[in-house]
Amino acid sequence: MLQNKSYVRKTRAGKIEKVVKEHYLRDDIYCGAPACTVCDTSAARLSPNASTILVLDTNVVLNQIDLIENPAIDNVVVLSVVLDELRNKNLSVYNRLRALCSSPVRKFFVFSNEHHRDTYVKAMVGESPNDRNDRAIRVATQWYQRHLGSAVRILLITNDRENKRKAVEEGIFAETVESYVKSLGQPQLLDLVVQPASEDVVMDDVEDLRPSKKKIIYSEHKPMSEITAGLHRGIYHQGKLRVNRYNSFEAYVGSESIGDEIIIYGRTNMNRAFDGDIVAVELLPQDQWHVEKALSIAAEVGNYLRAEDEDEDVHLVPNSSDDAPRNASVQGPNADASLNSARPSGRVVGIIKRNWHSYCGSLEPMPLPAGIGGIAHALFVSKDRRIPKIRIQTRQLGNLLDKRIIVAVDSWDRLSRYPSGHYVRTIGEIGDRNTESEVVLIENDINCRLFSAQVLACLPPLPWSVSSEHLSDPNREDLRHVRVFSVDPPDIADVTNFVHPGTPLDDEASQRGTSVYLVERRIDMLPKPLTEDICSLRSDVERLAFSVIWEMTPEADIISTRFTKSVIKSCAALSYVEAQARMDDSRLVDPLTTDLRNMNALAKKMRQRRIDRGALTLASAEVKFQIDTETHDPLDIGMYQIREANQMVEEFMLAANVSVAEKILKHFPFCSLLRRHPTPTREMLEPLLRTAAAVGLDLDISSSKALADSLDRAVAVYFCSGDLSPPEYLHYGLAAPLYTHFTSPIRRYADVIVHRLLAASLEISKLPTVFQDRPQLTSIADSKDVLHNDLLHVTKFWDIMPVYLNYRHRNAQMASRASVELHTIIYFRKHPTDTEARIVKIRSNGFIVFVPKYGIEGPVYLTAKGDNGGGEWVVDEQHQQVKKADGSVSYNVLQMVRIHLEVVEPQPNRPKLQLTLI
């Protein structure tokens, strides 16, 4: 049966056009119930002994997804009209529901009500899309009641007052979420129920246990219509709110409209905005702008603490100068100029896009009565210091006080000091290493689940070996006669020979984006049979590779470059240590060692040439742990040693990436995936320039290796070549006009994309259609499009899974750092120690030090917390020195000091490494 659906739309040119689509209706769509006597039950997903089948409306799924994911909620019919609405309203919830529908252990069945002849409904004249969809849900529920008869109760779950009223009038069984959960006899499930706030929503009779004193704390958010108009007129400024990681009462909003960061001080001015929210900001009067002064943790922050949340812990900032509050006396010839240097300050007037998600932390009991029904109120304290405390109610407080739990945010009323949320699940005991490691993964959105059977089915059977078909492939060169060897990390395997576009394996890799390296484990982007048994380069084993081959002069000048898929047979698989030992042993003169020395000589010349062009050595200190094989606890900690062998491999990998970038850009100028590192601004480099001047260095900021410390905010990112002009392709840190990622397809999905682009440029394979769509490729590369805009209207977007390359890359880095921090805490909890440290940044109440022995950077206080020094300590900006007012004691940048390292817990369940001056 054919129906025509028509609607009008506005074109890019501003014209209105009518679109007519054919809509096919069928009568052979099955209900999914095993007990059905009419439908084919071979593909039934629901339980055969279910007494009740649930039908959920869209808003229930949107607001109660944490509850729905609980195994107690099962035998659910998911209507296609609900899926369509979810896809347009919230991509994250849509994907979570789809995962439930595809899970073999959950009883969720998708019913295509929009294509069933008896359940499809046309919109009536004057009926809103929302009302039409609610009616479609009720019609489908009624159909199920008639279709299955009295053997099974069909229950519509809705919190919409009007939808429930109409359902009851139409003879449909309907309940609210809370009443249904109560009927299950599992009181702990009620902790998962999100309490709706709208007057159009049905609420059970629950006493409001919030404090009766309803004082207005925050300003009302402006409506979107007013925000849009204000942005257009330049009254408001849009940007992402970034809360200071070490002082949660200070935030920044990067504004393109004024070309600067707007500073937001205090929770009142943040106006219920969370870190990562897209907000509209109004500038404060200029006489209220923040004055640039010496850096401190005191005074202004202390005022916020006393006024808003006195038990909040505030830290001296160990990273960027822009991450610390400023308040201290300043000396030197630039003092007056510093006092007059004001930066834009503002307040949040509206939330354009929320960044709420689930948070890990623990409970802090509130001094309130238990209330009715065993309900207790508590404040949830996130491990992420940027997140405000969250008010929840729970029926299992006694069991949760010593646990790490997950809580989701539901709302934040302007009358409440804290946002309201609900308990999601328990992770484990506080302080347990496995629990805290899982927290690291959850906080950074790292997917660590096992690979599914569908993904593993994409792999070739083991044992795998190079076949005669591979050797006879005209697009693959036989290089087995060439003396090939690898130095860890391995050379460029031909991963894309096994990871084909559009397969479950490719979808999974694109969602993971990158492998994640923790202290005690590695979370792979691709399954281990592929990375360890099929693609990894081993001695005397034939492998498929994607090769970049240069002809070079003895001076490391490239005469020619070619690219080919190949078959290789490695004569040796060396670690960095083994390769270095060979090069250093003068007794060895075998061909392999000679090759290593020759390559190292070329690499040194290549490296020097990059440095001469202005390249920077940006690698920060890497901490290495010795881990107990049984307990997995750290036994020792130190800095990872970089050898010439490491630098040799790095040079050739960089050269390969540059060569591939040039090749793919030449063939695909509008859709190549490249990587750039923008030039840092003068403001970013200012702290480094001050430090250099204090020790008598005339710093050339275009080429010094010392820039690493000042480039915290100049981040390398992926981009699509069609979105920027060639001068913007520059990778500043490498001093390379073009750069991409090609050499690590086993652990980075970006490299998989580049492999496909390179293969297409060589006419080995066709370019996948996704790469021919520039807007779509941009959405893949740019995390902000994916993460902060669920309504992505991108051609064929639903044909692939979004990759979030920059987002996944950054999260993997943050997870690695958090894992190092966790194991550092575990180690020093048992091994407090004294050691040497070097001062690297000056603050008005202390300084930041670097501990060479352990590769640790952290704050050392000269004043007690909450004490602004009272003028006792002053900062000399010119000489980068902090000293007592009477001049009796002073500390200078780059000075060595002796410190004590130990773990303390100033707040419950928030251990930190404390550095104390000896």
UniProtKB/TrEMBL annotation:
Subcellular location: Nucleus
Annotated Pfam families: OB_Dis3 (PF17849), PIN_4 (PF13638), RNB (PF00773), Rrp44_CSD1 (PF17216), Rrp44_S1 (PF17215)
Main location: nucleus
Annotated keywords: Exonuclease, Exosome, Hydrolase, Magnesium, Nuclease, Nucleus, RNA-binding, rRNA processing
Cofactor needs: Mg(2+)
Biased composition (Polar residues): 318-341
Annotated segments matching region Disordered: 315-341
Domain RNB per the UniProt entry, residue ranges: 476-764
Family per similarity comment: Belongs to the RNR ribonuclease family.
Descriptive protein name: Exosome complex exonuclease RRP44
